[in-house]
Design brief:
This protein is of the alpha+beta class and about 160 residues long. It has one domain (about 25-160): Metal Binding Protein, Guanine Nucleotide Exchange Factor, Chain A, CATH 2.170.150. Helices cover about 25% and strands about 25% of the residues. It has four helices and nine strands, in the order ααααβββββββββ. A six-stranded antiparallel β-sheet has the order 3-4-8-7-6-5. A three-stranded antiparallel β-sheet has the order 2-1-9, with no helix packed on it. Residues about 10-25 have low confidence and may be disordered.
Length: about 160
Amino acid sequence: MTNRRTLIVSALAAAVALRFTEQPALAAGAVKFAYSLTDAQWRQKLPGLAYDVLRHEATERPFSSPLNNEHRAGVFACKGCALPLFDARTKFDSGTGWPSFYAPLKNALGTTTDTSLFMTRTEVHCRRCGGHLGHVFDDGPRPTGLRYCMNGAAMTFTPAKA
C-alpha cells in the first residue's frame, strides 16, 4: 500500500534522477555558440569534474577549488574555451566555499533561468561555449550588489604579468 511519504520520496527521487540523466539544453546544443564541440570532444578535452560542471551543470563541493584561495592579480577564464570571464580585482570572499565575483568582464557571460531543485535561480554560462559556470545572486557587495558564485572547476586562472 502506498502512503503519502512513499509517494513524496518517489517523486523526489524521480526528479533527481531526471535532473542527472538528461543533458541540459545549453550543453545539448539547443542553443548555438561560437565555440562548440561534440559531447565526445568535450569529454576528451575536459578533465572529469570540469566536464561534469561545464557540460552537465554539476556543482563542485564547497571549499574544494584551489581557485577559492587565489588572491593574485590576473584573469579567470572559461576552462572550456579560454574566454576571459572575470578580473581578479572583482573577486571577494563570500564565505560560501566557491569563488565569488561582483562583476564579470564585458560580454563574457550569458544567463538562463534555472528552475531545478524546486527553486528559481539565474544560471550563468560562458557566452562563447555555453559552459555552465554557476549562478548569480543579488546579495553581493558594492558596487553591483551581485554575487557571481562560480565553480572553480569550470575556470582557469592566469596571473597578471609583473
